[in-house]
Write a structure and sequence with these properties.
Layout (H helix, E strand, L loop, with lengths): L8 H12 L2 H7 L10 E5 L5 H9 L5 E6 L2 H7 L8 E6 L11 E7 L10 H9 L2 E12 L6 H14 L12 H7 L3 E8 L4 E7 L5
Parallel strand pairs: 1-2, 1-4, 2-3, 4-5
Antiparallel strand pairs: 5-7, 6-7
Length: 209
Amino acid sequence: MAANYNNTAWFYDSLARLVFGSTLKSSQKHLLPLVPKNARILIVGGGTGQTLEDLANLQYEGLDITFVEISANMTALAQKRNAGNNRVTFIVDAIEQVQLAANFDVIITGFLFDNYPDADLPLTFDHINSALKPGGLWLNTDFQLTGKWWQPLLLKSMYTFFKMFSPIPVSKLPDVSRVFALHGYNAIASATFYGDFILTRAYKKLLKN
């Protein structure tokens, strides 16, 4: 189960801007133009809901969005976002506890999997994967280490800081790319930000997965 950032919701976005500027926002919206018209979308770990506004700026209506976020305080902020005329269903729970339909066109996970240890990631991934229809699109954005000396230091500082407010069961990044590869996903687009520390990537699910 992922960490709950309920206690940091009130300053989370401000802190993100202080450390990363507009990079976190830019990275998560970069591949949203790939979302097809009138798509059924599952957002997991949606935080304060910036992606809802970014989607509405691209498609003001026609989207059917299920927004899952474990933090009630984060969700309350997300509900104040302008999602246009798109339909949004908010669910406050850990994704592992949510009964998911199996016909979503798109899944969006932003800075979600960095909260899972390698041992727990496969079970959560399988659960989310079951909700994406064959041929569907998965947009994932998260941190990565590319060998630059400052990246592990910044990552450790981030984990240490947030552990002061809530239990976070990890101290290092899980191998997310490996899990996507094991499930046969094809990467169709990607981009890096903030000195390659942030990777956003679009995956396509095999027709038989």
